[in-house]
Every structure is written in C-alpha cells, then in structure tokens.
Amino acid sequence: MSTTTFSGDAAEAWLNRLGTLREVVRQELVARQVDEQIAARFPVGQRLRVLDVGMGQGTQALRLARAGHEVTGIEREPRLIAVAREALAAEPEGIRGRMRIVEGDGRDTGVHFLPGSFDVVLCHGVLMYVEEPDALLAGLARMLAPGGFLSLLVRNGDALAMRAGLAGDWAGALAAFDTTAYRNRLGLDVRADRLDTLADTLGGIGAPLHAWYGVRVFTDLAADDAVVPESREALEALLAAEERAGRTDPYRQVAALLHLCGVRG
C-alpha cells in the first residue's frame, strides 16, 4: 500500500492554514456531524472510547476529550505530533488524563490495539494520501466494538470538476470527470473517493454506511488565506447554510469533501 508523504513543508503549510475560513468550516461542520452521530447511537453522558487515526494537530481529538471521552490519537508526522502535544499540555489535568498520543501509522492499528477496543473511530483527511485504502479501512473496522461508528472524511471523487470549473479552468474540469487523482492545495498529488465505492467497501468490512454528509459546499473556492467573518452572527449564518447544504440533495453531492459514517454490526 503506497502513500503520498504528508510531511515537512506540507505539514507546515497545513498548520499555517488552521483558523482560516476553509479550515474553520471543515472542522466545525465535522464536529457537529460527529456529535449528531454520537447522540443518536449512545446514551447521554456515556464516556466513549475514541480512536482518531491520522489525528493531525489534534483538533477533533482534543474536542472529544474536553467532552469527557477517552481519546487515543495516532499520528506519524513529528511536526503535527509536537503541535498536538503542546495543545494537550495546555489543557487542565483532567483533560490531559483522558487523551493519549501514539506515534505511528494508521495502517498499524492492529499492532497497538485489540479488536473491538473503541466505540468511535475517526479517520479524517487521511484516505486521500493512501493509494489503496481497503486494508486500512478493514483494520479500522476491526477496532470498533459492536454498535460503534466509523467516521471518514474524504475528498469527493464525484465532484472533482467543480473547483476547476467554477474557477474557469475548463481543461482541468474536463480532465477531472474521468479520474480520481488531483493535486491538492498543498501541492501534493493525491486521490479522491467516490461515495458508491466507499459505501460498498464499508458494507464489505462489516461497518455499513449509516449516514453521510457533504462538507464545504459553498466555501471550497475561498482563498487559502480567507479569514472567518468578524461578526459572530455572520459566521453562524455561513455555517448554518453550509450545514443545511451538507445534508440536502443535490447540494451535498457536489461538496468538496464527504463525511461518511459506518456502523459496526
């Protein structure tokens, strides 16, 4: 299974974009969607065992630890691990005690953990860097306890032509219809996933698709350095529009990212 390396300059560029409009929209929408799935599947107040594979700087892992869950984050990029550890060190002792960070590759979950060890497994923004993700996904499904859910955030392979087309790059748009390969804004050659293909894969690994959302329907074309609105009211209106579009056809079908939730039988 080959991968596109996410390290060095790419990791630094990613960190520099945290807090910008596109990343705030992504993190906030995914957080709301994860919370919706947790509320639908588990009793209120239950302390869940969460695994965040490819946790990056730890945004979602820390958020869930703050909510009272026991969280394990696994990440292989040293710069991102350092940022996550620094953020965790700034938290109160109780939160620090609920989160641990494992340096490693998401393909090696079976080395670190027993099958069925987690109620929730997150894998956000990782599959685009894995050329053949089926083995990784099967390993993640094995980590789930019965009734647990797998949260995947992927690039939407059925909407690759949208960004180029809306930017007036007609040659790029035409080429994008016939491929799942693309170059991301970090300058890396990566891949996208199609909804139907991933749904089939999830069914085959025992965590069939339960719900899915679109993420960044309206704001994907924003500049890398675009900032969030200064007014909280304006930001909430933007997020409300994105959230509504992300659960409504046909809008979610052309979102830049797909958030898929599979449930272990």
From TrEMBL:
Entries under Gene3D superfamilies matching the protein: Vaccinia Virus protein VP39
Residue ranges of coiled coil: none
Keyword flag Transferase: yes
Keyword Transmembrane helix on entry: no
CDD domains: AdoMet_MTases (cd02440)
InterPro entries: Methyltransf_11, SAM-dependent_MTases_sf
Pfam family, one: Methyltransf_11
Protein name (Swiss-Prot/TrEMBL): Methyltransferase domain-containing protein
Annotated organism of origin: Streptomyces ossamyceticus
